[in-house]
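Hi D.,

Good news: the full-assembly prediction came through. Inputs first.
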Amino acid sequence: MSEWITLLGFSDQGWGISLLKGMLVTLQISIGAFIVGLVIGVLTALAKLHGSQSMKVIARGYTTVCRAVPELLLILLLYYSGSHGINILLQALGFPEVDIGGVPVAIVVLGLVQGAYASEIIRSSILAVPHGQIEAATCMGMTRQRVFWRMTLPMMAPFALSGLANLWVSLVKDSALISVVGTNELLYNAKQAAGSTHSYLTFFLAAAALYYVINLVSNAALRRVELRFRRWMP
Amino acid sequence: MNWVFEYSDLLIKGFLTTLELISFSLVIGFVCAIGVALCRVSETRWLAWPANAFTSVIRGTPLLVQIYIVYFGLGSIFAHMPIIRSSFIWPYLRDGFWYMVFALVLSFAAYVGEVVRGGLVGVPKGELEAAKAIGMSPYKVMLRIRLPRALYQVLPTLAGESVMLLKSTALASTIAVVDLLGAANEVRSMTFEVYQPLILVAIIYIVLTLIIEQFFGRLERRIPVRR
Amino acid sequence: MKKFLVAMALSFAAVASHAADSLRIAVLAEPYPPFSQKMPDGKWEGFEIDLIHKICTDMKVKCQIVDTAWDGIIPALLSNKVDAIFASMSITKERAKKVLFTHPYYNTLPAVVGLPGQDYSMTKKALKGKYIGVQNGTTSAFYIKKKVGSVAHIRQYATQDEINSDLLAGRLDYMLADNIAAKAFADKNKGAVQFYGTVKYDPVLGGGVAAALRPNDKALAARFNKEIDQLVKSKFYADLSDKYFGTNIAPTNN
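Then the structure:
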């Protein structure tokens, strides 16, 4: 027992601070990827619903690939090609190359993977908005953009929310995969601690507990938000 | 692309390992999922409570962490038990394969258990009462009416869950099991081709996904449903 | 759309274009004592780390250590995430097609560590049916596959650290790894494992451990070479090597 306290503690020999720092990076990555995923999801959903034929094909292809290929494989593929690709793009546009750190790449990669799921959630909740309401808004002379911001978006939110809550939970879990390519997030730090001390069970259980705490807390918070959004619904 | 031929044995071995992983964990996991779901809807507290906790913990933590706990954590405990080390199961416990199957079964049982539970709860009460009225025992009601109805209802979700399972098998490569992704990584380390082996196996995963979806689509059409 | 992408990329860029006088050096992310290892407080320690600091000070460049997983260390270099690799990487012909090697900064042979009390020899007869762990894409892996790949169970891992843990757990009978790292591991776990000695040299083992650069960084390679050539003959190197290993592991043939 006292051995556990030393290993997980906050002293010089303990890895407690390292684990908590990792947890912070995990949260950073997850929040960033959620936002990126949401943006990509909305754009893809709009492309699927209102885009031209070729945009629809691209959007559908993107969704299919991201949903069929293991996340770990996508991460391995995108992690190294991703920053390379961004730099090629920048050079083509006449900008200097930039140094892209591990966390931002992790955010973009996870965001891309989760964007596919987000787009399906958003598409189906847009479809769930009663059509009459949209028509009524158009009749009143609202522009298409205004209809989207004032009508579609607020009305679809309650439908999308439970799906997005699930997405957040699976994002936090998927962020652990980033440890395979080496960014100082929670599981990665736990792996380093476990490897140095040979106390595998201790550190992996500790990591699991921290992930579980993140998910319990966010589940409770999301349930409150959901109740608030649903308050006008029958 | 010469490496495809040069390392075809390795890639085929990896492919077969992936198929083995998914078949074992799909079958065992599905049976366990029904067990978990039945426990969760049970009125007996000491059955329902552990099943609920199990589902919550498995669904609330990353699969990769679970795999590490099972393989590095439990695995080294086994290794320090002389009874196990000298027994006939040790050769199996040496390899990462069965640890991976175990972790996948736990995960599948939790996720699909949740879906089956939803199905069990969703069976119309009237039907259950009707079955009881014609004199079926509670056990028979469950086996003949409630469970089959629930399973029909979860069939569409099962396709999605199986695809998730297929994708999860790729994590086996993190514990030195040579599955499809593991084989690709080995090829990568020998040829220093960075992307091509990964793209090849990505295509194979897409094809496998399409096959799984086709299979469940057929199964669904074969089951008569009156709506 | 273009604007949006650029804005996104720029906002994610940590530091805009790095100056020529600072280098990002890739070391192994996983613990690889006594060459490189991260301490609980986040500081790096080890023989390679000390060498990197010495080289950078002498070359008057600022160096930033970037920990990178072995599996992705060459892609990280080629995709411009780091500028040089110092990760106990041996010079081999295959690798030299992708990266530019400097002159070697140390040279050791692989050694065998295994569960105690076995009848070991590097022959097909002795190793038949044995479980042997090696790290993916290392010269040890190439060597063992060439020697006994047809009869033994060769298990390949992403990191040396996982091999150590599986050997301690008894899942492996032997492992083959760099002599120094293997010896350090065997000494630390006396009783649980036994050191069976180094293997005989074979061309597949390559020509020593060197830093790796991008193929077009020829000027940088020249600067490194000059520095490394001086360093490996210096007293600093001999003392450092003695402190860590009790012997001088400088490459002899250059």
